[in-house]
Amino acid sequence: MDYTLEIMSAPLGALLERYPVCRDFLQTYGLEKLDLSLPLPKALEHDAGGLTADLGLSALDLTDLLNDLLQASRRVEETINSIEIRGGTDKDGNAENLNVTIRTGEIVSLVGPTGSGKSQLLADIECAARGDTPTGRVVLFDGRALSDEERFSLGNQRIAQLTQNMNFVIDVSVQDFLQMHARSRMLPQPEELIERCFETANALSGEPFTKDTKVTRLSGGQSRALMIADAACISPSPILLIDEIENAGIDRVRAVELLTGGDKIVLLATHDPLLALSASRRIVLQNGGIRAVLETNEAERKTLRELREAEKRNADLRRVLRAGERIGLCGNYTTD
Questions:
Q1: Beta 281-286 vs 138-141: how paired, if at all?
Q2: Can you name the residues that pair with 214 across neighbouring β-strands?
Q3: Which of the 8 DSSP states describes residue 226?
Q4: What is Dmax (Cα atoms) for the chain?
Q5: Tens digits of residue pLDDT in 88-117
Q6: For the chain, which terminus, N or C, has the lower number of CB atoms within 10 Å?
Q7: 174-184 helix and 21-28 helix, angle to the nearest 10 degrees
Q8: pTM
Q9: Residue 99 DSSP SS3
Q10: For residues 245 and 221, is the Cβ–Cβ distance under 8 A?
Q11: pLDDT digits (tens, 9 = 90+) for 188-229
Q12: Closest Cα partner for 126 from 237, 227, 231?
C-alpha cells in the first residue's frame, strides 16, 4: 500500500491520529513543531526552512521516508495457516525426498548436532526460499511461493526471528522500547499489550527488571525473556523462528507454554531434550539435510513430564542459591 497521496493531502494532525508512528517520525527529524493543520509538504513549505534547514532533505525526500516507514509499519492482516517445506539436498547433494507441512498453533523443534543444518533450515523459511538457497529447498505459505516483492519488502511482517546472539543498540528504557514497538505496529490498546508483555517477560526471566531499566543494561537472559514476550504479545507475525534459547537463563517451560498458547507457527532449533520433546513433532537434521520427521509419542511425553519435574526442581534450587540460602541433605532448603 502506498501512502504518498495521503501524506501529501491529509493534515499532519489527522495522520498522527490515524498512524501514531508518525509522531516518532516527526520527533526523529525534529519536526514536532510543524503546523499540524497542514499536510506535510505544505507544513514544510510554511516552515520556510526554520526546522528543516539543517536536515539536507527536501519535502519530497521526507514524504518518501514517511511513506517507507508507514509501509514497513503496516500490520500484515492476512493469516498464514500453513508452511510447506519442499525437500532440497544435503551438503553432499543427496535429495531429502520429503515435504513437511506445519500448521497454525503447532510448534516443531529442529534437532541435530552442531553444523547439521538447523540454522540453515530456519534461514530458508525466513527468506521464503524458492530453490535459490544452498539447500535448493522451496518454502510455500498457504500453498504458494512468495513473490520477490513479498519476500524483500520492508513491510513483510510474516516472520519474526529470535537468534541466539541478540543485542540492543538503542539506549532506551524497557517501557520506551515496548511503546515504540507497539506504536510502530499501530496496534489497538497498546498500553494493555505493553503491560502484559512486561509482566510476561519478568515471569520468564530469572532476575526481575523494571520498566525503567535500560534495554542495554539487561542481561542475556533478561533480553531473551523480553524478546520472547514481545514476540508473543506484541508482534503480529504469524510465524516465529527461534534459534536456541536453552542457554538464555529463562524459564524454558513457561516460554514453550507461552509460545504454544497462541495462533502462531513456531519452529525451534534446540539441543535441549525438554524443548525438543515439548514440540508436537521434531525435524531431525544431519549433514545439512532433513533426515526424518518424528511425532512425539506417548513414551516421549512421559519422559517430558519427568524432565519438567526435574526442571522445576532445578529452578527451585537455583532460586534458593541466588537468595543466599543453604541447601541441606537431600536438597532440603535451610536458611543460615
A1: unpaired
A2: 173
A3: H
A4: 78
A5: 999 999 999 899 999 998 999 999 999 999
A6: C
A7: 120
A8: 0.72
A9: strand
A10: no
A11: 677 888 999 999 999 888 788 999 999 889 888 888 889 888
A12: 237
Residue pair 281/295 in contact by the 8 Å Cβ criterion:
yes
Report the DSSP pairing between strands 333-334 and 326-327: antiparallel
Q: How far is 216 from 168, CA to CA, in rounded Å?
A: 6
Rounded to 5 degrees, φ, ψ at 164 are -75, -15
d(CA 231, CA 235): 5
CA 6 vs CA 62, 64, 69, 87, 232: distances in Å: 14, 12, 14, 44, 32
**Torsion over CA of 161, 162, 164 and 167, rounded to 10 degrees?**
110
Q: How many CB atoms lie within 10 A of CB 12?
A: 22
- CA-CA distance, 267 to 315, in Å (whole number)? 25
178 φ, ψ (degrees, to nearest 5): -65, -40
Distance CA 129, CA 137 (A): 6
- Backbone angle region of 30, left / alpha / beta, with phi > 0 → left and psi within -120 to 50 → alpha: left
